[in-house]
Specification:
about 40% helix; Aspartate Aminotransferase, domain 1; 4-stranded antiparallel sheet; NHTrfase_class1_PyrdxlP-BS; Aspartate Aminotransferase, domain 2; transaminase activity; alpha/beta
Length: about 375
């Protein structure tokens, strides 16, 4: 048998890939599973978006290979979206790169900038893909703490005490996943200054800024940010297009060009119809965000009630697509806690440990379940 690459020795299968197999198996055995674990929106894109895709299918260019940089009108739509919603001006010709989902951008950025042995600052807790991709490219993860007593923000004194000589990239993401911490422009300014001082590429992962958040922000709003910043964004959560795989990378033109060298060797362009749908989605006005948030607000209220019925303490300041909650006093294992609920009550919740050691003692609920299902989950817990 052909042996696998050594890089696979230091990564594991993505948690949700393996755990959801177990959840599906339980469902196939007749268990009435309520899945509150994964942040895959159950709501639909707007009808205008769907109509744009249907219409595009008849275009004579629809089924050809597409540009590695995406349609010019898609990049213009992304530029307009950033200007209208964040007040950030970007050149669609060289400061924007459409992606097949922002997750692939994590790999592209890492391949473009990291050599074997380079170090990467990764938030703890944070998105597990930062670590797995860092390991895949032969770089070294260096974790920095985010803790509740500091509002899930970096401790800059602790960061400055690290040996930063080998650090090439720092990953951040606000609104923060998994906790929902909002961040602030003051925090962003401090992060940009830190990156400039230490010659670090600062990459902000920003897919949640419109979900239950009355003040969407971009790291690129900071003066001079483009010198050291790239930002990832996505249509997955904002426009209920997770399965469409539409993301974007924005910021420093030279960095965008470097990432394009990687991307152009890994795909043959995004499907034309999806690009047309994305263009339409990016035109959405505030009524779209208000209508989505009206739904998510009701779900959050119920999900907080569910967490409290479990004896958990909810992080009330959180925004985004999740509810982050601290386990009851005396409970030491998040994974054991959620497995007991899965097997006894057929409710799947994410343990905080998959996001890093600072996630121990916490669990995360996704707001991607209809109100009646959350109410049903509450009844299962109290009965």
């Amino acid at each position: 048998m052909v042996t696998t690459a050594k890089r696979l020795d230091i990564i594991e299968e993505y948690y949700f890939s393996s755990k959801l197999r177990e959840v599906r198996q339980l469902a196939s055995e007749g268990k009435p599973i309520i899945n509150m674990g994964i942040g895959s929106p159950d709501l639909q894109p707007s009808q205008a978006v769907i109509d744009a895709v249907v219409l595009a299918m008849q275009d004579e260019n629809a089924h050809q290979y597409q540009s590695y940089q995406g349609l010019p009108e898609l990049r213009q739509g992304m530029a307009d979206f950033y200007k209208n919603n964040y007040g950030v001006v970007l050149n669609p010709a060289n400061e924007i790169l459409p992606l097949m989902g922002s997750k692939e951008g994590i790999m592209h950025v890492s391949l473009a900038f990291l050599n074997e042995g380079d170090q990467v600052l990764i938030p703890n807790p944070g998105y597990p893909t930062y670590t797995s991709v860092t390991n895949l490219v032969g770089a070294v993860p260096v974790y920095y703490d985010l803790k509740e007593n500091n509002n899930w923000e970096p401790d800059f004194e602790a960061l400055e005490q690290l040996d930063l000589s080998k650090v090439k990239i720092m990953w951040i993401g606000y609104p923060h996943m998994p906790t929902g911490a909002r961040g602030s422009l003051d925090l962003f300014s401090r992060l940009v200054a830190f990156a400039k001082k230490n010659n670090i590429l600062l990459v902000n992962d920003n897919p949640y800024s419109f979900v239950l958040n009355d003040n969407p922000m971009s790291l690129l709003q900071v003066d001079g940010a483009k010198d050291v910043v790239l930002e990832l964004n996505s249509l997955s959560k904002t426009f209920n297009m997770a399965g469409w795989r539409v993301g974007m990378l924005l910021g420093n033109a030279a960095c965008i060009d470097a990432v394009l060298k990687v991307k152009s060797n890994m795909d043959s362009g995004m499907f034309y119809g999806i690009q047309k749908g994305a263009i339409e989605a990016l035109k959405s006005d505030k009524t779209w965000f208000e209508s989505m948030n009206a739904i998510y607000r009701k779900r959050r209220i119920l999900t907080e009630q569910l967490a409290e019925k479990l004896g958990c303490k909810v992080y009330k300041e959180g925004v985004g697509l999740f509810v982050w909650a601290k386990l009851p006093d005396g409970i030491t294992s998040a994974e054991k806690f959620i497995d007991e609920i899965l097997y006894d009550k057929s409710i799947f919740i994410t343990p905080g440990t998959i996001f890093g050691s600072n996630g121990e003692g916490y669990i995360r609920f996704a707001l991607c379940v209809k109100e009646e299902k959350v109410q049903e989950a509450i009844l299962r817990i109290i009965n």
